[in-house]
Write a structure and sequence with these properties.
Distance between the termini: 58 Å
CATH architecture: 3 Solenoid
Structural class: alpha/beta
Number of helices: 2
Helix content: 10-25%
Number of strands: 19
Strand content: 25-35%
Strand order of the largest sheet: 2-5-8-13-16-18-19
CATH topology: UDP N-Acetylglucosamine Acyltransferase, domain 1
Order of helices and strands: HHEEEEEEEEEEEEEEEEEEE
Number of domains: 1
Length: 187
């Protein structure tokens, strides 16, 4: 057992002033210009605001008004990608959401944590990649450094800490393989 003392009085946020100023301006802009809109109204306007702050978003992508994007320059969304109601996109590192992919209501995408082996608990980050045709179901959690494979499904309330293979369905906490995903044409 270690006898090191944790003293967070020396903790420093290393994200920098520029990052903090962009976030401040972004939060004010979203609150005044988009958050109050009904959830799915003004798609083009919301995408314009996100692009204005550096996001790379396809014209057909959809971000609901109540979704929270921490840092737009680290967000990329493909054609027909969706961040639904109350999604928390804590993208301190890049988040990429592929084409025809849905991140359902209440989901948390978290690209950061803290190094618990260091007594100052410094911030650590890693990107999240959600590939094309995936579906992250309601209130799921996707942790830093995770890749969700093409066509994969993360079940409702699942907590994902490791990569998910393409065309699989996972669920639980921690998320575990449930079965292969098969698409039945003309069902």
């Amino acid at each position: 057992m270690t006898k090191t003392k944790i003293d967070l009085s020396k903790y420093e946020n290393h994200l920098g002033r520029k990052h903090q100023m962009i976030r401040l301006l972004w939060n004010i802009t979203w609150a005044l210009c988009a958050r109050w809109l009904p959830r799915s109204v003004g798609k083009g306007w919301k995408n314009f605001l996100l692009r204005l702050f550096g996001a790379k978003i396809a014209k057909t992508a959809h971000v609901y008004s109540s979704a929270k994007v921490y840092y737009p320059p680290f967000l990329t969304m493909g054609e027909h990608a969706c961040l639904a109601s109350d999604v928390e996109c804590y993208n301190v590192a890049p988040v990429t959401i592929g084409a025809n992919t849905t991140v359902s209501q209440g989901t948390c995408l978290c690209t950061a944590s803290h190094d618990v082996t260091n007594p100052l608990n410094p911030l650590i980050t890693a990107p999240i990649v959600i590939e094309d045709q995936a579906w992250i179901c309601a209130k799921a959690y996707v942790g830093m450094g995770v890749t969700i494979g093409r066509g994969a499904v993360v079940g409702a309330t699942a907590s994902v800490y490791k990569d998910v293979e393409p065309w699989t369905i996972v669920g639980g906490n921690p998320a575990k393989f449930i079965k292969k995903r098969e698409i039945i044409e003309n069902a």
